[in-house]
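Feature request disguised as a bug: please show the residue count (321) next to D-alanine--D-alanine ligase in the output. Example input:
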Amino acid sequence: MTDSTPARTVVVLAGGISHEREVSLRSGRRVADSLLQRGHTVVIREPDSSLLSYLADTAPDLVWPALHGASGEDGSLRALLDAQSIAYVGSEATAAQLAWHKPTAKVLVSRAGFATPDSITLPRETFRELGASQVLNGVSKHLGTPVVVKPAMGGSAQGVTVVESEAELPRAVVDAYTYGETALIERKIIGTEVSVGVLDSGAGAFTLPAVEIVPRSGVYSYEARYNAGETQFYTPARLTPSAASAAAEAALAIHATLGLRHISRIDLIIDAEGAPWFLEANVLPGLTETSLVPQAILAAGLNLGEVYESLGEAAIRDATH
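Example output, currently without the count:
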């Protein structure tokens, strides 16, 4: 907290009932600790049946949603916060809903002129009605291998499988359905996997250094994301200057195209020619000790508490306009 920034009462929302509960709790604690160190009053709350009445009764200055999964990222909670005129950090409800649904985000980004891997969106009902073998044969003929199979909505790489041969595809689709009703099957682009954080506290959006992701297993799985030592990160990413510039420009433009606000993380593959391919956008990037955006904030020479505080102030200003 600075002389010009008043002490705030902040409610950090963490936990919930999604598959990403533990990650959410870790993110929430990290945000809370950073804001406490800045002199703010912070309460960590679960998104339970008493939450909305609690917020109405206590009227905090700010809510920081650190809820991963549908409860925090699909836009529904944000719409309810808007209905109560509560300031909160992050994208507004409509933008969150668009980004949360990966196939929709891919269409919007593609129409804006950015490359994204060819894909097929496969609802569970289609899989059942048309027959698994017929559907998967069609997928294989169109996309070939390797492909990446993932839930159309979700995060933390849960339900994600890299399929190297056609024989692996049925199991991968079933695994994706464990986490949602729709699977996204996407042609795998060979290249360097990077994530680019985008921040905007009111003076204009800017990118953080790209983080290059090199998992020991070859797949950036849930375990590789949240267990120390399972993934090697390079910040900034080992890209040529032109490729790094292209990645940053793409991330900024995609953030704007999807109407995102305050903080986002844009996941890209940089191909052999240095061109970025859009994979997905995260309206609530992980903020744990192994997460990418905090790594990039620190690599940029910024202080986590100051950054989170500035985003909170931006949210409070936005709520009054």
